[in-house]
Design brief:
Blueprint lengths: L2 H15 L10 H4 E4 L4 E3 L9 E2 L5 H4 L3 H11 L8 H8 L5 H27 L11 E5 L7 E2 L8 H8 L2 H7 L17 H4 L11 H8 L4 E5 L9 H7 L8 E6 L10 H4 L4 E7 L7 H4 E2 L3 H14 L5 E9 L1 H5 L1 H10 L3 E6 L12 H21 L4 H18 L9 H13 L4 H4 L8
Parallel strand pairs: 1-4, 4-6, 6-7, 7-8, 8-10, 10-11
Antiparallel strand pairs: 1-2, 2-3, 5-9
Helix pairs in contact: 1-6, 17-18
């Protein structure tokens, strides 16, 4: 049993002893702030329902508005809220969900007595959360980004907005598939800059109240878009300097950044910096999946970080969004990650045409066999360290997600439509990078 699952089991035991539902109860609405570039507030990064707005209203008050209270009560009452469908999907396939990762994080950091006291307090009034209990704030200050990745969309990338607003045909073809669907049916491609206006800047009437709320957070995570491109990002870091010694700074960054060193002096004042580099694909297919990206720049920045920071103050991982393209090149990913001693982090692509779940069964089985062989490699190598542990655990989690979900010998219709649209309207062709998909397209 791996460490995460062990902590989850111990947490669930306490949940059971206190009479809560281990099937639906979640800590996220009590200890997490998730602030989107649109201004919307969510229970976590996988949350599907808007719970409030931090750019137009005071986030400290929004944290206990009616929407938050209803979500907390339903999960407490053993009801599967639609907001949390990504977690239910992951758990049904034996993969670790964000809900369970919160259990692991809190139990691993604080132990059983802290968990018992926290849950006992929640039981007294399960509808309400307290700002002093917030462990983690994730903020996506704007959608400003220099890449247009295959699994992304205009809500998270200004490059996507530019691509679609200049191409009505492609917009019509992919709008129902993108990761952040446009809310109004009558929206035209040319209107996208107006539709996403609130997400284009980190300015907000109540941004200062968010900074005040961050004082309670032990972990502050910046995501995007690309957070290190935000011209106001330095200002956020400078504000947090007063609490830096007790805070962990977290990033999701594509690391396609010039002059990265300008952040180093500020980073060094934080208790810890967790840097997840969003690589998402094998080096040979990087420019296909991470459109406009420069893999050599990423490699250079990794070396700069390794030369300027040491463990445990800096913990760097190379993140893979587990999709059909990364699944098909898992051996190459393994070889590069191991050669460069980069710790693996994975995130499942679930509700999207590029999800690995849509691969034809024959290719899916090849992926499963390859992934298993990378796990088995460590048996012969007799290696046991953090790299080996993270690789085996993360690979197994991805493997679990696809191994019991055979759908037939074809790509899904949505996947075919999505890939063909990219092939028609962009300068890179799928089969040039993944020739094994040609007969299915």
């Amino acid at each position: 049993m791996n460490k995460i699952q062990d902590n989850v089991n111990k947490f669930n035991k306490i949940i059971h002893e206190l009479g809560l539902s281990k099937e639906t109860f979640c800590l996220a609405p009590y200890i997490n702030l998730d602030l989107d570039q649109s201004g919307e507030m969510y229970s976590c990064y996988r949350g599907k329902k808007t719970l409030g707005n931090w750019k137009n209203r005071d986030s400290r008050k929004e944290f206990n508005n009616e929407e938050y209270q209803n979500l907390r009560q339903q999960l407490y009452d053993d009801k599967k809220h639609e907001n949390c469908k990504s977690c239910w999907s992951a758990e049904s396939k034996g993969s670790i969900s964000p809900r369970q990762r919160f259990f692991d994080q809190v139990y691993g950091d604080y132990g059983s007595e802290y968990v018992k006291n926290l849950l006992t307090k929640i039981k007294q009034n399960p509808k309400l959360g307290e700002l002093t209990d917030i462990e983690r704030t994730e903020i996506r200050t704007s959608s400003l980004c220099n890449l247009k990745c295959m699994h992304c969309g205009p809500g998270n990338s200004t490059q996507w907005i530019q691509m679609l607003s200049n191409n009505q045909t492609m917009y019509d073809e992919v709008r129902s598939f993108i990761a952040d669907p446009i809310s109004t049916d009558d929206t035209m491609a040319k209107d996208l800059p107006k539709v996403y206006k609130s997400s284009l800047s980190s300015d907000g009437q109540y941004a200062d109240t968010v900074k005040l709320a961050m004082r309670h957070s032990k972990i502050v995570q910046f995501s995007g878009g690309e957070p290190l491109l935000d011209p106001k990002h330095k200002g956020w870091l400078e504000y947090l300097q007063h609490s830096a010694e007790r805070q962990t700074l977290d990033y999701n960054s594509n690391l396609n950044i010039h002059d990265l060193e300008e952040y180093f002096p500020l980073w060094k004042n934080f208790k810890r910096v967790n840097l997840r580099i969003s690589i998402d694909s094998a080096p040979s297919t990087y420019k296909y999946f991470r459109r406009l990206g420069d893999f050599s720049l990423v490699e250079d920045n990794i070396k700069k970080i390794q030369n300027n920071f040491s463990s445990p103050q800096m913990f760097m991982t190379g993140s893979i969004t587990f999709n059909m393209f990364s699944a098909l090149r898992w051996q190459e990913i393994f070889d590069w990650w191991r050669k460069n001693n980069v710790i693996l982090h994975t995130s499942l692509v679930i509700d999207h045409p590029t999800s690995a779940i849509h691969l034809p069964d024959s290719l899916k089985q090849l992926c499963i066999d390859t992934m298993q062989s990378t796990i088995d490699w460590f048996k012969d190598a007799d290696e046991e360290d953090i790299f080996a542990d993270q690789w085996k655990r993360s690979t197994q989690d991805c493997l679990n997600y696809i191994k019991n979900d055979m759908k037939g010998e074809q790509l899904s219709n949505n996947t075919v439509l999505y890939l063909k649209s990219f092939d028609r309207h962009t300068d890179l062709k799928t089969i040039d990078f993944f020739p094994e998909l040609e007969k299915f397209l």
